[in-house]
Design brief:
Blueprint: H1 13-26, H2 38-58
C-alpha cells in the first residue's frame, strides 16, 4: 500500500493499526489517498479511542 498513511514518530503505531483496521472493517474499498492526514489528527483519534473505551467500560 504505497498511499497508506504512515506514522512519523515512534509512539503512534498502535493507533495507526487501530485506524487501519477501522477503515478496512467499515469500508470495502479503502481509498488511502484520502487518509493521508492521520498524523496531524492523531491527538483527536487518541481522545476518541479513549472515550470509546471509557464509555464501553461504563455500560
Amino acid at each position: 500500500m504505497k498511499q497508506a498513511p504512515t506514522q512519523t514518530n515512534n509512539t503512534d503505531c498502535g493507533m495507526f493499526v487501530c485506524k487501519y483496521m477501522e477503515n478496512i472493517v467499515r469500508q470495502n474499498n479503502s481509498n488511502w489517498i484520502e487518509r493521508t492526514d492521520w498524523q496531524e489528527k492523531m491527538p483527536k483519534y487518541r481522545a476518541e479511542f479513549a472515550y470509546g473505551l471509557f464509555c464501553a467500560a461504563m455500560k
